[in-house]
Amino acid sequence: MYHSLKLTKELSLSQHSSLAIRSSLNTALPTVSASDTAFTAESVFNYANEAIIITDAENRVVEVNPAFCELTGFSLDQVKGKTPEAFSILPLDDHRAKRLQRDEIQLRDRSKSQVSYRSHDGQFYPGMMSVNRVRDELGNIHHHVIVLADLSAIPSHARHLKREVYFDSLTGLPNLQLLTQLIQESMQHADEKQLPLAICSLDIDYFENINARLGQQVGDILLASFAQRISHLLFGDDVLARVGGDEFVLLLHHGVDEDFFAQLLASIRQPLMMDGQSVHLTASLGVTVYPHDDAQGDVLLRHANQAMYRAKQRGRDTFHLFDPNHDRMLKVRHEQRQRFIDALAQDELCLYYQPQVDMYSGSVVGVEALIRWQHPEQGLLQPAQFLPIIDTTSLEVDLGEWVIDQALRQLTEWYALGIALPINVNISPTHLLMSNFSQRLGELLSRHPDVPPAMLKLEVLESAAMHDVQAALQNMSRCQALGVSFAIDDFGTGFSSLTHLRQLPVSLIKIDQSFVRDMLSDQDDMAIVESVIYMANRFKRPMLAEGVETLDHAKALMALGCGLAQGYGIARPMPAQALPGWLASWPDRTEWFALAHALR
Ligand code: C2E
Ligand code: MG
Ligand code: MG
Fold first, then answer.
1. What ligand is nearest to the CA atom of residue 494?
2. One of this protein's Pfam families, by short name (predicted)?
3. 28 vs 314: CA distance, rounded Å
4. How many angstroms is it from 370 CA to the middle of ligand 1?
């Protein structure tokens, strides 16, 4: 997981390029001569923006680079043989952090910590110091490579501001304010180097319980210790920031994969020692990767947070990768739903009506109301083009109530024209299973007192009733008490058992059009139609065949004992105002009436 910085001639620049955050600082580094331009360790050493200090096994300085001299004002001669503390690179003043830091440095060959260092102007500035202990083949410490990055240079004006504006006082890590700027810099860096940048939001699981159990003070120490642990897992250019109580953000410049996050979680799971007690922590991680997620800095952070909440939902102690495509899809869905809400409010929806006839008598027994969207730009939309947008949302309830109300109005209107045909209305599963379904239906009916409730029939999907049989049964029987009856729609597609069919209070079974349409050419469909008709007859329930496209369908259905039909062969769904004309011309369709007579 770690890659250690070795002073070899082959070291490639790209691996250890300095953070772009330093580029804003106008450092006067030596100019490049043609012979110097090879990508060697020497050139990294000479041209890095970060101060680099090489110390021996005892941590005494043997070499410093020009950036070090530039940053601190010390020459090599002034610091040679001294330890970094001797020339004022100090751990943070917080004594707890100091203690932790020492322990950690003792333990690891690679560490990273917040320090403050004295610059050439005599002032102290925040820095990030990473120490790499390099060992020889026998495992003995050979030397140390110390890289000091000047954090105050990150926002170029930070030198004039107080430290606490940009750093969290407990952990010494960059805070949200600084992070926001670091993200910008990191994105720029990623663009320049054409490397991905992972933004990882980290939230400790149930930290509030730990605070409550161990007290705020121990909680604070734990957080500082936790921050230390995480920072040791990072590579040179990476950033760890604390953005809230137990919330951290990591900016990761190397190409991270799922293994990296699994390992990160695994090391978080290692117990932390607190006053002789071991404390177990887990965290939830949310990650988004720029430029795959090609968004602005603040949006990237939001996306990482969103993903972190998903990780929490998925049970915590896990990570979730933000998927920009999925997110775009959700956004489109959201916009479509908003558009649908407008359509409902602006009367862009309307009902078409498809007649249902009794083939034995030729009489029209009712109509089915079918929703259409007269879209101002896209023209007349069919239900399949927009119902999926609102599937399983509360908008289904809004639409359902609108449809019922509209159908009741239509009944009143037709009644005035002398047309008394019941209307079948489709009810979505979500709507049917609402606990106040029957109460709302009662209210809608009372708004149209001239309409006998028996003129309204509700078509419910077999699958809806199966979803929660008890709730469906309860709602259906309450509606029946209001005088409204039910039909079971698309029968044959929902795997309902005979027991349920017997239980459901339905007065009509509608055989799904997909079986009817192909029954003449497909033996399996014919078998289904035959069985449904047989079953419906056994349970003494009237049945209606949908999808009756031709007279041949009609004849076959009648021969099997199914008399009610609806389909393109009889009429396509039509606007309400077309219905009186169709009704008047229906008796002229003599072939249908001949059908009825032929069987008498
Ligand atoms: P459905 O309730 O099974 O309605 C019958 C569908 O079959 C209608 O499609 C109708 O136009 C079509 N159809 C009728 N006869 C024939 C035929 O002979 N051949 C063929 N190929 N198709 C025929 P539509 O209007 O596109 O509606 C599709 C589905 O959308 C409906 O199926 C229903 O499940 C749903 N739907 C329609 N209006 C509403 C509504 O107001 N509320 C709810 N929740 N769902 C609705
Ligand atoms: Mg229907
Ligand atoms: Mg149907």
1. 3
2. EAL
3. 51
4. 6
Contact 261, 201 (CB under 8 A): no
Residue closest via CA to ligand 1's atom 30 equals: 383
Higher-confidence position of 551 and 47: 551
Structure tokens at 463: 């699958």
Q: Residue 547 has what DSSP assignment? A: -
Verify whether ligand 1 is closer than 6 Å to residue 567 (CB atom): yes
Ligand 1 pocket residue status of 525, Cβ below 6 Å: no
Give the domain ranges of the chain. 40-153, 163-322, 352-371+393-599
Ligand nearest to the CA of 464: 1
462 Cβ closer than 6 Å to some ligand 1 atom: no
Give the tens place of pLDDT for each residue, 479-534. 999 999 999 998 877 656 566 677 788 899 999 999 999 999 999 999 989 998 98
Per-residue pLDDT at 1: 32
Could you give the CA distance from residue 364 to residue 586 in angstroms, rounded to a whole number? Answer: 9
* Per-position DSSP letters for 427-469, written without gaps between them: E-HHHHT-TTHHHHHHHHHHT-TTS-GGGEEEEEEHHHHHHTH
**Residue 489 Cα, ligand 2 centroid: separation in angstroms?**
5
| CA pair distance 205, 218, nearest whole angstrom | 16
Mean pLDDT of the chain: 85
Question: What residue's CA is closest to ligand 1, atom 37?
Answer: 370
Look at residue 354 and give its three-state secondary structure. Answer: strand
Per-residue pLDDT of 242-253, as tens digits, reads 999 999 999 998
Nearest to 125 by CA among 154, 86, 94: 154
Nearest CA to ligand 1 atom 43: 426
Report strand pairing: 239-244 vs 110-118.
unpaired
Return the residue whose CA atom lies nearest to atom 45 of ligand 1. Answer: 426
CATH of domain 352-371+393-599: 3.20.20.450
How far is residue 99's CA from residue 276's CA, in Å, rounded to a whole number? 15
Check if 428 has its Cβ closer than 6 Å to any atom of ligand 1.
yes
Which of 367, 368, 513, 518 best tests ligand 1's pocket when mutated (most atoms within 8 Å of CB)? 513
Task: Please name the fold of domain 163-322.
Answer: Alpha-Beta Plaits (3.30.70)
Task: Record the tokens describing residue 78, joined without a space.
Answer: 């002034």
3-state secondary structure 235-270: CCCCEEEEEECCEEEEEECCCCCHHHHHHHHHHHHC
pLDDT tens for residues 443-460? 999 999 999 999 999 999
Burial class (CB in 10 A: 0-12, 13-18, 19+), 319: buried
What's 40-153's CATH class? alpha beta
Cα–ligand 3 centroid distance for 285 (angstroms): 46
Which residue's CA is the closest to the ligand 1 atom numbered 10?
573
pLDDT tens, position by position, 389-408 = 999 999 999 999 999 999 99
For residue 509, the SS3 value is: strand
